[in-house]
Amino acid sequence: MNDSMITMDSNYTNLTTSEEDFQRRSLEAIIIGSIFLLAIILCSILGNISVIVAVWTYPKLYEQKASIFIVNLSITDLCNAIFVMIWTCCALITDGWPFGIMWCRFQCAFNYWLIIVSMQTLAWISVDRYHSIAHPLQYADYLTTKKIMMMLSFSWILGLIFAFVPVFLDWVHYDYWEVVCAINWHYQQDMAVFYVVIAFIVCFLVPAVIMVGCYSCIAYAANKCARRIEACVVPRSQSIASDSNSTGTSQTTKLIQSNTKVIKSLIIVVAVFFVCMTPFCVTKLLKVVFYNNIVPGWLNAFSTWVQFLSSASNPFIYGIFRKDFRMAFRRQIRFLNCGLFNVELSSEST
After folding, report:
1. Alpha-carbon distance 64 to 259, whole Å?
2. Is the pTM of this model over 0.70?
């Protein structure tokens, strides 16, 4: 492999991880890592395209305003695969960064931008679900499509601002062990620490508090509603003359059960996101507080791979826990099978 790395002209923003010599990755590690990363990329691209197509083609999903948030999250994950993961895979295979300074800066910006948008989107989803459960009668008027688009636009603009600050301040370098272009936290350290604190509070802590608060309120409201229905079902079932009321109660129960399944799937999405992002955040925090070399090389690579894994996991979560998505995915598979069958018939006829 080529040991020479491109060096940038500006102060301290070189594409090398450090000026010191370090042990490079073995050929076996490159091959195994590349195969694993390619699998994540394929799952991310195919899975998130399937989610987007499912929402736009399946009426039950298309009619739900909450699906706009899911589409936005899928677009974010798809962009992560295209603008971040693919270039990381190329850097891993070539054992260096062959794409130059400008794309290194853009890859770093896209990486942080998409992470922030994902976090903000998950927070908006929790707000949406809270209003659908706690205020069902006012939900349609409160969260309109226009308001949802404004919320998501705010997320993209906020992420854009925080992601490109390190680029404009020339903090970006290629981290050999992370296999991505990242921020050098010890260049202009005082400013870097200030940036980290503000970004952590605005982009991560606030959305996390919103999610915990909303889902806690949802759990409380759902349990309270379930107790009310249970109290109503017993006396009504004892009366033969209350068949219509029992039917209404049954329909309400089914609606709550359906909402509960949707909320469970979203909570799992949030949990998986936090699990995948924890190594990434912890390693960054260690680098800010201490120094770059405190984190072992394998842990840097592991944090990057697990971060990427979050982009590939959501379509599987939807498919496992949501019946409407399973139906939509099955329609896509049937459509593809019919298309392949028709192609075979036409080729045989010619």
Report:
1. 12
2. yes
